[in-house]
Amino acid sequence: MGRSGLEVADIFRDHGPAWREANRGHISLEQLKVMSAIERCRTAALGGFVARCDNAECRHTVIAYCSCRDRHCPRCQAAASRDWLAEREAELLPVQYFHVVYTLPAPIADIAHQNKRVIYDLLFKAAAQATITIGDDPKHLGARLGITAVLHTWGSAMTHHPHVHMIVPGGGLSEDRSRWVPCRPAFFLPVRVLSRLFRGLFLKMLIEAHKADRLKFFGNHAPLADRKAFTTFLVPLRKVEWVVYAKEPFAGPEPVLRYLSRYTHRVAISNRRLVAADESGVAFRWKDYRLEGRSRWKTMALAPFEFIRRFLMHVLPKGFHRIRHYGLLGNGTRAANLERLRDLLRVPQVAAEPVEQAITDEQRQLPCPCPRCGGRLIIIEAFAAGTQPTCWPASTLTKIRMDTS
Predict the structure, then answer these.
(1) 25: Cβ contacts below 8 Å, ≥ 6 apart
(2) Which of 51, 127, 190, 346 is deepest in the core (most CB within 10 A)?
């Protein structure tokens, strides 16, 4: 898929001021901060560095601007994903891995938009509890599972579609921790059983949240603040099947890593899917999952204000963790559990990586060779946000973007 060179930041810079003015009083502080961060990312507004080639015959000089490091920024997530994956690679086991997806039904997704922190948290908890409970059941596996879960709140067209992707090793640790209990080949756990338990757990948690006045309702949903009306609203949802999807197992640890690299730090839309933008609209590629093959990819055009609204719909509450670990991979016991599993699976223990000595920004090398001679670029100056560098050798100056996330 070719790239147009267009970025979400360009759309925000061109149309963001007018959109903010038109929606004044209806924009959250988190959304305003995300817009500002993306607009300023890798520009002089955030400062940067001047670097010079250490080849005496070249001495080519470049300017590199700092990144915003915001988790919603399409530019900054690649580096964050690489760092996170390096940590996960050491945790992979030589077993089959499964991909399980839990999706909220549309009526719940509607109220989730007004209660992101509460309902997204319940989605995580209910999905993890359902998976671990069925895994623990001797009728199914009878073992403790490990889960890595990632929240996505969007569909391909940036509509609101909250769901959790799970990567789960195909087996678990027996109750007495004496053996590895594998899943059946190419079969994880019964999807219908998972779906019904997930539905029951989530609705129970949701009712408890309503009783505790943790949910807020606005607009057409305002009547749901009444307990009786809310109970009536939930009745049809108890009678339909909730979508839980278990995909074919991955063909080894490497595909797991490739999958995680695409999903863990993804944002509502990547820059590479943008096609064109002008005053009348923003065109981007989206995938129609009802179709098969290459025909799935289509082009959609939205008015600039609608594009911005859909993008910002997926800004998460401050401090909300969108990647979580459960069961054997829970943060408190992960190291000990992985050590035990490696013993049972006869996997060599991973040697601890030596801790690198901290270096200053001025000592740091740019992550790219000299564009002229391929030599090493050395930082010779750092300039603060909103200021300009003092080294401006016009004859050899090149401006580049540097990922400092």
Answers:
(1) none
(2) 127
User: Which residues does 189 contact at the CB level (< 8 Å), separation at least 6?
Assistant: 131, 134, 135, 140, 141, 183, 246
Given strand 244-246, what is the order of strands in its sheet?
Answer: 244-246, 97-103, 160-169, 146-154, 323-327
Length of the chain: 405
Number of alpha helices (DSSP H) and beta strands (DSSP E) in the chain: 10, 14
pTM for this predicted structure: 0.87
Helices assigned H by DSSP within 313-397: 334-344
The pLDDT of residue 293: 66
Beta bridge partners of 378: 52, 365
Which residues, other chains included, contact 339 with Cβ-Cβ below 8 Å and sequence gap of 6+?
A: 349
Pairing of the two strands 61-65 and 397-401: parallel
pLDDT, mean of each 10-residue run, the chain (405 residues): 77 96 94 95 88 86 86 81 75 89 95 96 98 96 95 94 93 95 90 96 98 95 96 96 87 73 82 92 90 80 97 95 94 91 84 45 53 85 85 54 47
Dist CA 320 CA 273 (whole Å): 26
- Could you give phi then psi for residue 262, rounded to 5 degrees? -85, -25
